[in-house]
Amino acid sequence: VTHASLPGDQTLRIWDAKAPRVPVVIPAHQAEILSCDWCKYDQNLLVTGAVDCSLKGWDLRNIRQPVFNLFGHTYAVRRVKFSPFHATVLVSCSYDFTVRIWDFSKVDPLLETVEHHTEFTCGLDLSLHHPGQVADCAWDETVKIYSPSSLVISA
């Protein structure tokens, strides 16, 4: 069993339950990492989101360079989540009041920007039961549940 942790020192640490005292340390960002998530389709792929406003994808088989870099947020990325229904799609929220939907396999990876909060967007998740449904929350004391057009699965 493998686990990931964010110790607050700009690194991503990968722990193997069989050797818990010897983590793999990835110098992932030039700023504090606030969130990470495992890809539901590839056990070796993780995404990190950081205070440097970027998201980076990491393949554990080669940790020297990120497999993708996503830029567009203008403040710290607070939460990142891979889609449970799309192998190359992820969603991020930021202190820039936005939620962004990305497809890291595309040349232009930003699919959609959702702006419906009046304060820092700080929480995010994707439904496991309703494909394309997102829930987010912000410091404006609201929770929004919605289905962005970029996540609609076509038949």
From TrEMBL:
Broad class of the protein's primary localization: cytoplasm
Keywords: Cytoplasm, Peroxisome, Protein transport, Repeat, Transport, WD repeat
Transmembrane portions of the chain: none
Residue stretches of each WD repeat: 26-62, 70-112
InterPro entries found in the cross-reference section: PEX7, WD40/YVTN_repeat-like_dom_sf, WD40_PAC1, WD40_repeat_CS, WD40_repeat_dom_sf, WD40_rpt
Domain of life of the organism encoding this protein: Eukaryota
One Pfam family cited in the UniProt record for this chain: WD40
UniProt-annotated location(s): Cytoplasm, Cytosol; Peroxisome matrix
Family of the protein in this entry: Belongs to the WD repeat peroxin-7 family.
Protein name: Peroxin-7
